[in-house]
Design brief:
Layout (H helix, E strand, L loop, with lengths): L5 H26 L25 H15 L8 H23 L5 H25 L6 H32 L8 H25 L4 H22 L4 H19 L15
Helix pairs in contact: 1-2, 1-3, 2-5, 3-4, 4-5, 5-6, 5-7, 6-7, 6-8, 7-8
Protein name: Tryptophan-rich sensory protein
Keywords: Membrane, Transmembrane, Transmembrane helix
Organism: uncultured Rubrobacteraceae bacterium
Length: about 270
């Protein structure tokens, strides 16, 4: 037996539709790629990660589909945690799908707005996850809700810094490969690293899969930056290493937060 309302069913359908839409839009994205950087939307910058870093999109899309299938189970229709994170995640899937269409078509301003909105939606879902609590979470909640959200949010946190720097380069505000581009890119990367450290610290009030997945994915992005830029820019490479130290300290040096309490059922 299951409980839940028509709104719960609508949320389940929206998550499945959104996850499928962003996966299909991802195919469009790949088929329409030029030789230019991915999240940089065509403007080469001194914080662009190496190409291999973007393979993280495969697990992001697959984990999103796995989450969508899990939350669509009839027994999960009235689940309090999924009620809490479901709508912002469904919206995030659709927004990312739109970004995957706008970006390769060169709609730079629209793409930047979309990726910023995507970041905000994932932040809402992540902090609802932390705040709502999981009590004694089952394995499925840890691996099919917390981990997919952490991976997704971690990558999009880093992607926003690259995207903003690239937009400034493409708009002629800075020289993406010059001093101005390095300064702006380094500043945005540092802000992203500081934000990531705060997110990891706050996430320690929740299950480990959430904040560990977030931190590991952000570190993966930084590794991509160092691998791609260590010969081109000592400055942005140093900033990336500093950010990695901040996030690493938040992951392993900070104290663990409080434990989750099981959320009450929501109507």
């Amino acid at each position: 037996m299951y409980n839940g309302t028509k709104r719960d069913l609508a949320r389940q359908v929206a998550n499945v539709a959104g996850a499928v839409f962003q996966a299909l839009a991802g195919v469009f994205f790949v088929l329409n790629l030029s030789s230019e950087p991915v999240d940089g939307e065509g403007g080469s910058t001194l914080i662009d990660p190496a190409g291999f870093a973007f393979f993280v999109w495969a697990p992001i899309l697959l984990l999103s589909l796995a989450y969508a299938a899990y939350q669509a189970l009839p027994s999960k229709r009235g689940d309090a945690l999924l009620r809490s994170v479901g709508w912002p995640l469904a919206a995030a899937f659709f927004v990312n799908g739109l970004w995957e269409v706008a970006s390769p078509l060169g709609r730079l301003g629209i793409a930047q707005v979309l990726i910023a909105v995507l970041l905000a939606l994932l932040a809402v879902a992540y902090f609802r996850l932390v705040r709502s609590g999981l009590g004694s979470p089952g394995r499925a909640d840890r691996w099919l809700v917390a981990m997919p959200l952490g991976v997704y949010f971690g990558w999009i946190t880093a992607a926003n810094a690259v995207s903003l720097t690239s937009l400034a380069s493409r708009s002629g505000l800075v020289d993406g490969g010059g001093f101005g581009g390095a300064l702006m890119g380094g500043a945005l990367l540092f802000v992203g690293g500081a934000v990531a450290a705060v997110v990891v610290g706050a996430g320690k009030a929740g299950v480990a899969q959430g904040y560990l997945a977030y931190g590991a994915t952000f570190l993966w992005a930084l590794f991509g930056v160092v691998a791609n830029q260590y010969q081109a820019s000592a400055f942005t490479t140093a900033v990336a290493v500093l950010c990695a130290a901040l996030v690493g300290w938040a992951l392993f040096g900070g104290s663990r937060g409080g434990t989750f309490r099981a959320p009450a059922a929501q109507g």
